[in-house]
Write a structure and sequence with these properties.
By secondary structure, the chain is an alpha/beta fold. It is built from 8 helices and 12 strands.
Length: about 280
Amino acid sequence: MTRVMFALFVLCVALAGEARQAWPPASWNAPFEAFNVAGPIHYVGTEDLAVFLVTTPQGHILIDGGLPEGAPLIEQSIRSLGFKVEDVKILLTTQAHFDHVGSLAALQKASGGQVMVMEGDAELVAAGGKGDYLFGDRYTFPAVKVDRVLKHGDTVSLGGVTLRALHTPGHTKGSTTWQTAIVDDGRPLTVIFPASTSVNPGTVLPSMPTYPAVGADYEKTFRMQWELRPDIWLGGHGSFFGLADKRARQKAGEVNPFVDPKGWTASVERRWKAHNALKPGTQN
């Protein structure tokens, strides 16, 4: 092996090591200050993995979780706002991937709350991620007891708050968009927690053996999300809805920047355009 070839080999090994260290991204488990988004909705996630606490007089609802090791961070964020993890009565999901439900088992144990998951994802959550249509058994997490399997249009209610489950599949077979109405400083607002519409590498559109309807499901989801007209839209990753920027503006005293209906329309249009740019029959 020549010196040049050896140097290239060493460089490739080093870069491969850095790539391994970069997964999952550090931002997925980096602390982020907990804060009130609007009304009863609070952010209790990490720098980029979004987790939301919806508080009510009769207990609380938690939407999504983070990595398995992220449970202590979420619990700490909940307590920093003056609430108790033990008062979480319901735990919901937007998708059954390890970076969003990895902490569910620990949070279910800590709170004693009921886990409710959309059909299409419920079996995957109960299996700890084994048998995923895309990842197989690659990205597993602690298995979770699912207390209620949801269907499209089902509602979840607690303490005067009602969330409606919309089945918006594609990213996972049971991806869920949650819709609710709140009042913030006397102002009625509609809020959604939308399912991701990103296409993970390895997904074959419009169809693949492990998910024949994947392409059709993505199109259905885009149509459904386009019809929504929320005042506030959030998401499973902070980067999806401009978390850092909007929070900084909120802290600077700007009238709630999370109220962003035009931003939602632009987001759907941008994501739909990017989705249509994917070539059918090829892997993303």
